[in-house]
Amino acid sequence: MRGGTSLGRVRGLGSAKSGVQHWWQQRVTAAGNLLLVLWFVVSLILLPDLTHSSVVAWLKQPVAAVPMLLLIGSVCWHVRLGVQVLIEDYVHAEGLKLMSLLALNLYVVAVAAVSLFSVLKLSFGA
To answer: In this structure, are residues 71 and 37 in contact, taking their beta carbons and an 8 Å threshold?
Structure first.
């Protein structure tokens, strides 16, 4: 027995089977973000003070820099996935949708690149 409606079978429409990976990526990045943001907040609370020099000294340690890089990557990817769904659902003009998705991707890559560069520059000394 085949699934779907009669009209869907006639038109050859069925499950696209493409949304599951996107859905899982959103859930996995959300879980990762939860753990990494919790680590970040606890780490900041444990710092003696939040002056520039103490934060830079903290980020020079690999045990702080590596999770910070993971946090930046995970948050940027999660934002991209979430805003992509919004654009695909609510922007109906194909040209505007394409341009919006392109702008989203450029924005997320730019934010990730600047953020990662900043952490790496602080970690390796400037």
So the answer is: yes
- CA distances to 26, 58, 83 from 51, rounded to whole Å, are 34, 11, 34
Contact between 97 and 87 under an 8 Å Cβ cutoff? The reply is yes
The candidate with the shortest Cα–Cα distance to 60, out of 112, 116, 119, is 119
- What is the Cβ-side half-sphere exposure of residue 14, based on CA atoms within 13 angstroms? 6
pTM: 0.84
pLDDT of residue 25: 95
CATH number of this structure's domain 7-123: 1.20.1300.10
CA-closest candidate to residue 61, choices 36, 42, 80, 43: 43
| Three-state DSSP state, 103 | helix
